[in-house]
């Protein structure tokens, strides 16, 4: 059996190989991993979403706002432990260091979804937009897990 | 002659394997640790001034007191249903712990006490606890009743505005609160507590041990 490589096929592969990293640097400098949210049970109750923001750029990126149609307000909050007392405070702008990441998980950073239009239910996906001070906004698809989920692998 | 050598080699090999295995097993044998004193994880019931009488309402609207749970150990945790982060995580972990305990789970009453009785009516509590595990009882009451219960359990809590500052009296609020889960004896005396984030296996293991030592129906301490 012989394998024949078509010269144009080879050329197009070569072009593709050049094109992908160039595009990647531009568009995927900021990416999000393992987004998930918890079902809210009732509309009157705030819900929480969690995600990890990766920054492959060589300069820091600062998350300044989140927008989603499902919630009147969405802000990054942080649970802080003062002695035995757990307190939730707004986290303010979140700086994702160059080449680094900021992770959210229960007991730490979370996106608090307030003033919900309707209950956020298990199985649905909503798409908040993350806005940064110094780079393009990105839209993230966030799957909604059950009210008892503790992480992206739970149900 | 060759047969004799063969036999000898076989015997030597068997002996070496047996000795080797014995050596390895000796190294990992838990029997060697028996002499080390085990740290006591439970307080002598009645020796720690946490817990006591309370009078609240369960999520079906029935009045309940400390005595209604007599005969069961209690796992008691505090929170509020508008809590987006810590409380659902704690309730989810209690639900997983109930699963881990399997048949032993019935020896314990699982009580979720709201620190936000103004919003957490019995109906709201019912809706909330059933999303996690039907074995969890939601407790609420009047503001005074809940204050008294929290005081008895040394649970500090405070309303805070959504901006993280002191609550101004109107609008939405959260409740910052102590995140410990208490394990109490069958008569409601403090045995131990779990900090937020305790591994489930550790919590289930400690509860099992408490059931063995304090949970026997005839072994009231």
Largest interface: A-B, 31 and 33 residues
| Distance between the first and last residues' Cα of chain B | 73 Å
Oligomer designation: heterodimer
- Percent of residues of chain B in beta strands? 15-25%
SSE order of chain A, as H and E?
HEEEEEEEEEEEE
* CATH domain topology of chain A: Immunoglobulin-like
Biggest sheet strand order of chain B reads 2-1-5-4-3-8-9
Strand content of chain A: 35-45%
Number of helices of chain A: 1
Q: Considering DSSP H and I runs of 4 or more, what fraction of the residues of chain B is helical? A: 25-40%
> What is the N-to-C order of secondary-structure elements of chain B (H for helix, E for strand)?
HEEEHEHEHEEEEH
Q: How would the global form of chain B be characterised?
A: globular
Number of strands of chain B: 9
- Indicate the percent of residues in helices of chain A: 10-25%
Please give a structural write-up.
The complex is a heterodimer of chains A (155) and B (221). Chain A has 155 residues and is mainly β. Chain A has one domain (27-145): PCu(A)C copper chaperone (Immunoglobulin-like), CATH 2.60.40. Helices cover 14% and strands 45% of the residues of chain A. Chain A is built from one helix and twelve strands, in the order αββββββββββββ. Chain A has one helix at residues 7-27; strands at residues 30-38, 47-55, 61-67, 71-82, 85-90, 94-96, 101-103, 109-116, 125-126, 129-132, 138-139, 142-145. In chain A, strand 1 (30-38) and strand 2 (47-55) form a beta hairpin. The longest helix of chain A is centred in the N-terminal third of the chain and has 21 residues, at 7-27. Chain A starts with 6 loop residues before the first helix and ends in a 10-residue tail after the last strand. Residues 13-26 of chain A have low confidence and may be disordered. A seven-stranded mixed β-sheet of chain B has the order 2-1-5-4-3-8-9. In chain B, strands 6-7 form a two-stranded antiparallel ribbon. Chain B is α+β, with helices and mostly antiparallel strands and 221 residues long. In chain B, helix 2 (86-101) crosses helix 5 (200-214). Chain B is globular, with a radius of gyration of 25 Å. Helix content of chain B is 35%, strand content 21%. In chain B, a hairpin with a 5-residue loop joins strand 8 and strand 9 (190-194). The chains are: A mainly beta (155), B alpha+beta (221). The interface between A and B is medium-sized, with 31 and 33 residues. Strand 5 (85-90) of chain A pairs antiparallel with strand 7 of chain B.
